[in-house]
Amino acid sequence: MQVTYVGSAEDSSLDQVLDEVMVGPVPVGTNKFVLQADAPDHSVIPPEDVLGVTVVLVTAAYKDAEFCRVGYYVNNEYAEEYDAEAGPPDPLDMTKVTRQILADKPR
């Protein structure tokens, strides 16, 4: 299984693999996995894409062939208020960026 953070909708080369794990053998039936990964490296994400909505992809493969891909929306927000016209502070204090993963609504 692989967890990938989409750094920019415009450039897939900015996608970051956050974690890769081998699982198995997996019994037949419905299974549940808990995946935990470090945050993406914000220094390689374009400044205009750090805040707002993006996607985390969880993919599963067997013998190097992907057979399942699930996407979760992630909303990145700045914890402090700022003037909407001026935009968030530059540079961003990344300790004040929060992420909410819509884990109950996979796509």
Automatic annotation (TrEMBL):
Keywords: Chaperone, Nucleus, Transcription, Transcription regulation. GO terms for cellular component: chromatin; nucleus. One of its GO terms (molecular function) is histone binding. InterPro entries: ASF1-like, ASF1-like_sf. Pfam families: ASF1_hist_chap. It is found in: Nucleus. GO terms for biological process: DNA replication-dependent chromatin assembly. It comes from the Eukaryota. Belongs to the ASF1 family. PANTHER family: ANTI-SILENCING PROTEIN 1, HISTONE CHAPERONE ASF1. This is Anti-silencing function protein 1. It comes from Triparma laevis f. inornata.
